[in-house]
Amino acid sequence: MTATPSPAASRGTEVRLTDLTRVYAGNVRALDGFTLHIAPGEFVALLGPSGCGKTTALRLLAGLEDADGGTIEVGGRDVTNVPTSKRDMGMVFQAYSLFPHMTARQNVEFGLQLRKQDKATRHGRAADMLDLVGLSKQADRYAHQMSGGQQQRVALARALAIEPQVLLLDEPLSALDAKVRSQLRDEIRRIQLEVGTTTLFVTHDQEEALAVADRVGVMNAGRLEQLASPAQLYKNPATPFVADFVGLTNRLHCRVAGGVAQVLGGAVPLLAGSAGDGLAIVLVRPEGVTIAPVGSGGSGGAGGAAATVVSASFLGASGKIVARLESSEGVGDLVSVQVDNTDVTAYAPGQRVLLAPRGDAALAVSAT
Amino acid sequence: MRPSGALVGVAPFFVYTTVFLLIPTIVVVVGAFADGSGRPTLDNVAALGGANSSFLPALQHSVVLSLVTALAGAVIGAVLAYAVSTARPDGLLKRFITSLCGVLAQFGGVALAFAFMATFSIQGFLTVWLNSLGLDTGSSIWLYQWDKGLMLVYLYFQIPLMLIVFLPAVEGIKPQWREATETLGGTTWTYWTKVAGPILLPSFIGATLLLFTNAFSAYATAAALISQASPIVPLQIAGTFTSEVILGQENVGKAMALAMVVVVALVMWVYAALDKRASRWLVR
Lengths: 368, 284
Description:
The complex is a heterodimer. By secondary structure, chain A is an alpha+beta fold. Chain A folds into two domains: 9-239, P-loop containing nucleotide triphosphate hydrolases (Rossmann fold, 3-Layer(aba) Sandwich); 248-357, CATH 2.40.50.140. Chain A contains eight helices and 19 strands. In chain A, the strands form four sheets. Chain A has a six-stranded mixed β-sheet, sandwiched between helices. In chain A, strands 15-19-16-17-18 form a five-stranded antiparallel β-sheet, with no helix packed on it. Chain A has a four-stranded antiparallel β-sheet with strand order 2-1-4-5, with helices on one face. In chain A, a hairpin with a 2-residue loop joins strand 11 and strand 12. Chain A is elongated, with a radius of gyration of 24 Å. By secondary structure, chain B is mainly alpha-helical. Chain B has a single domain (54-278), classed as MetI-like fold (Orthogonal Bundle). Chain B contains 13 helices and no strands. In chain B, helix 9 (175-183) packs antiparallel against helix 10 and helix 12 packs antiparallel against helix 13 (250-278). The longest helix of chain B is centred in the first third of the chain and has 31 residues, at 55-85.
């Protein structure tokens, strides 16, 4: 996988995590040969279900936990055995990390104070940082006088104030409500591009990861399953796990022959690395399926697969139809189909429809 | 007008504080300035400072005893609270220690005094056992002295009390604060002096104050342990009510109680001044 250089590449630091292993009590391998190279100035998101090791990887890079094996290099220097306080990492935690007895400004100045910077420099830097996160007016507030989103902004300003080599974001948005979350998400990306700091962002929310990162690493059971740009990850998942975790996906029974899956009455080429001939379960994305009422002749290809509508939901920007297959290999399988929001009213539960794979957009990865 | 029903709920609280706090305070204040037949006088207060009065030394003993056991109890109890907070949250050890301290903190009084006598006095089992090993423990008089035995006995309930009142504050410390300090370049020393210390200080001072008043007003333990003289104020007050040698001293006792109220009020005032700073960031 080649790194995509970010516009701010010249300002950032390179990070190399090589073959990291971390074993917890009870022989739980939180990390099991984890390798990740982050290019200077790059924004990498680690994505995965809880317990996949993504937070452990971040904590190892921060030095908050020790690796049982492997090496950590930052800017060409081996920091595997360097204590946290000497690693120069800016970290934003999930929540409640601001020092409650200090104002926003004092929090931001704290790291500079430890670096023995004089008062004027500290003040100037803190003001700049609070301005960067849009909180100049809240500089004299204490944590309990700010909203969750504001607290996270201050935490970000505090982490960036020390001009860290690497910015570490440990699910910084997960304690916020949906609207603030997407706002702050976009803002984190804007700020990261502005300062150009190499960034590692850990999240379990695939939408978040795809939205902000240059590259997304999907983790499973302590290993990196795939590291790729968001678009590549979505269009070309390397493993069934990645396909399943990134995007909502239908799991359909079908017959595979010669690298092609016979599914929904059509033929869909399997992605590389899938299973051989025979019966299989393939993953097909909701936007990779077309739907048409029976008799309209609207579904393409070989006529499609007959199904009965189970539900039709209006989701705002789009709509979702769920139908149960009646024919072909996958009898009884439920299929989610993404439709335009204006088309939702054309379908009602009980109605008979024809489903077909959408030529280019259908994605099939064998899950068995 | 507020609906009258809203006051019904707090009525028991007001009744309680009236009966057990307000009325006794009024009785003490009024009585301190009245003679036996109810006429106003300053004699009771004046008697406290008299040349032959044993009150001032007793007050000094009381303050020193309370201060020493409060500070020692607070420091030792705080360290123990921190140790307990690092144990597994639902572990057996932690539940055992907090329950034990809950009992020990309330274990003052005659039973405690007896336990110490049975252990350390001239006929106490520890003394007898050590003697049988050929170790001379000397006289056990120290046990009955206010600045030795009494301090030790008071610490026996002060330390557990500190543990249970201070533990919630210690447990309110977020692990992220230490980790944030470290990532920002701070050491363990930085963390304790600049982060955890200042955050815990208001709770620590508040708990120490509680320990001070707890020791200052304790009576039964001292009464059971000390039968010669009355080295501390609560025993002196009791003396004015029970003495069969000098009669009519009740109102001098009330003047002594008033002096105790003044001491506690002074301590509260100092605390309030210190607390003012913390109240800007504390969420109560």
